[in-house]
Task: structure prediction
Amino acid sequence: MNLIRLLPPATADRIAAGEVVERPAAVVKELVENALDAGARHIRVEIEEGGAGRILVEDDGCGMSPEDLALSVERHATSKLPEEAMLFAIGTLGFRGEALPSIGAVARLALTSRTKEGAAHRLTVEGGRKGAVTPAAGPPGTRVEVRDLFFATPARRKFLRSPRAEGDAALDSLRRLALAWPQVGFEALLEGRPVLRLAPEGREARIAAILGPDFAAAARPVERRGETLSLWGLAGGPAQGRPTTAGQHLVVNGRPVKDPLLRMALRAAYRDVMAPGRHPAAALFLELPPALVDVNVHPMKTELRFREPEAVRGAVVAALRRALGLPLGEAGARLGYAGPAALRRAPPLSAPLSAPPPAGFAEARLPLAFAPPPPLAAAAEPPPPAEPPAAPPADHPLGRALAQVMDTYILAEAPDGALILVDQHAAHERLTHERLHAELVAGGVRAQPLLLPAVVELPGAARLLEAAPDLARLGLEIEGFGPGAVLVRALPALLGAPDPAPLLRDLAEELAEEGEGAALALRLDAAIARLACHGSVRAGRRLAPAEMDALLRAMERTPRAATCSHGRPTFLRLGPGEMARLFGRG
Result:
């Protein structure tokens, strides 16, 4: 009895299709890449039922003759590798010749195409069964319509997420391609609503259109010209960090990628200035000879293999650090790494200390209760004799505040003589988190209506609006304001008056990271953590002595005060024994 047998062609085609057509977003990506390779100057996309119901991609590219149309749905047929040697120097986006036959194997596919010189023709494929090429009507270019995705593989269809989630993923894929090809115009409709309309433009204008004008205005230009590698783009500053890597747009030779080496280079460039748990936002365009990069590593072609990975990584790190105004150090020209920031920035011991910044500035006081300082003595009375400061009470384990270091850390003395160093932002973030959580448990976070409602435009608007009932329980009241925008009517009263735009952007990314299948409690806790981060005192905020002591006392009364909402420590303790060992006295 033979145990090994050949699969029927239809079954083999559907299995192979799974490598290319993972979800509707993959279909949009493959079809738009085909349109770009065909020289399209304008691409129109329609998505219905999250793409599972219908996907339409129209372009004004070169089109196909009747003969090419018939071959286009045959497996391994392609116009993008005229010579076998080009497999090792690929200059197009799609090249495998698998997209159309794979889509046709699991869906109902209809193609209408026309060259500029010829007439239009139409071809259909249903579940792998190919129809005949017939005359049709249509303008120059190609029109591809995909209906009932995965109807031929019902098990795969069951694993699709909700139409909203699949539609958002498809739009994200389209936006990344639009960012990579600013010279091409794009138009998109989602469930019949216009959600994207981009005219051909320059790279900087396209970055502003995709990542937002605020990012483009505040980002730092990145540029490097080399013999084999050129880099251009915009990099967000440390304050523009995101909770996820969704703000990282990397383009190599016109191909949007999510390459681990390039993301590692981003982390390395920002490691000295980006807080743990935050990720830099950037739009970077790399260009290098196709022979120096292998794009045939990943089925979706989102990961690459560089011939000289360390040289690429070093060039990216060095260019980013130069754009951020960070020193490169001895190895900067090669790898862009310069060692610990504290050692690089420390002034010589003989250098005079800079004058302290002026006391007090235009920020609201911390929302912590503390006793006001005693009134000043009358001018005629002589000052009382100096007395040594009282020892911190034993019931205050964090002790009394001694000073503020770098306008970021509070230095305190504990009752046993230990030194305590508190990260003021991390500590206040935990306090805010616990107060928001307590209000939520008590019935809902108290909201503060805005005097003038704020309009915020962001790609994740639909995701936020779906979560609007949950966000209202957290004191954040929003409603739709046209495609891609929300109207903010109220914010949690505990947060004061933060800018709602970065808060909503981070919340949208946080909700996407958690996923729609996450439990309500988990999603609410993630949202509370993000609200707490935006509503807490920042590093660089100068505190009065009474505010520092009040922060220490509040930490002592607060559960989980040893870590912030993201799990980072809020304070460090250096006991007398540890100090003695450091000075060689133990």
